[in-house]
Amino acid sequence: MTADDALRAELAQLTSAFALHLRLLDARGVRTLPAAASPRFGVAVERPAIERPAIEHLSPASPAAEHPMESLLEAPAETAAASAQPLAGPLADPPAEPGALDDLIDDGSRPPLERLGALRDHIGDCQRCRLSNKRKNIVFGVGNPDADLMLIGEAPGFDEDQQGIPFVGKAGQLLTRMIKAMGLTREEVYIANIVKCRPPQNRDPEADEIDACEPFLKKQIDIIAPRIIIALGSFAVKTLLRTTSGIMRLRGSWKSYHGIPLMPTFHPAYLLRNEAGKRPVWGDLQLVMAEMDRLGLERRR
Predict the structure, then answer these.
(1) How many domains does the chain have?
(2) Residue 179: inside a domain, yes or no?
(3) Does the predicted model carry a pTM greater than 0.85?
(4) Which of 92, 156, 211, 267 is 20–30 Å from 195 (CA)?
(5) Is 7 a domain residue?
(6) Which residues does 19 contact at the CB level (< 8 Å), separation at least 6?
(7) Separation CA 300–CA 279 (nearest Å)
(8) What residues make up the domain containing 232?
């Protein structure tokens, strides 16, 4: 990407951020613009009432159809940050009292975008665990607050910590192409991680760090109410399913996260190191696409 391309992408982000931020302020009853405001991104769309399918009735595994997963790994990298839409930073207007934020977060009659904004305000400049000591940015989440499909990884890496957006490094660029191969875009799904701050040297998050951060992920899932979850990598799968079983045993078969169908699969970073994982991952994504079609969820074919 050239410097001009990067500048255009940044300007487009700022313009979209400002417009959406004004909408959120208006929804909160703010009629005067603060001197400084930080962006809140997301595109809310209407969708039908949620029907939770029984896990045992989900589509069985079928042989993976031919698909150029190789081309996904070899295609020119897209810049995820150019289209990413994070919910970042507390609003500049005076913060609500903690009780009022909690009420807004839990108010199911409010738009998901507004509830996510309240959740991000509640997190604030988080100092709840040691990961705050060296992080640059809190990586809250990115995508559609009304998403039918949610993808959950482990933790931010270097690039994510620098930009405050999940999955923007090489693994994130591959994830973007995988999402596109499913007939979707990053803007149509929601992407988050188990923890929201980068562990030093990209180590696995520790138990107390997960305990401090996971409640916010659970709130995100509750607010977004996805119809399907894809868990990316062994660590995310073990944390969400509360299991010690490895990803090799769990991937490719439907599980349940509090009644939401969950598909475990390999992390995109694993695919960058192990090309043999491409075909089984495509099989996992096919199962997800088949279930989306069965539920009548929108995607391009």
Answers:
(1) 1
(2) yes
(3) no
(4) 92
(5) yes
(6) none
(7) 21
(8) 3-41+65-295
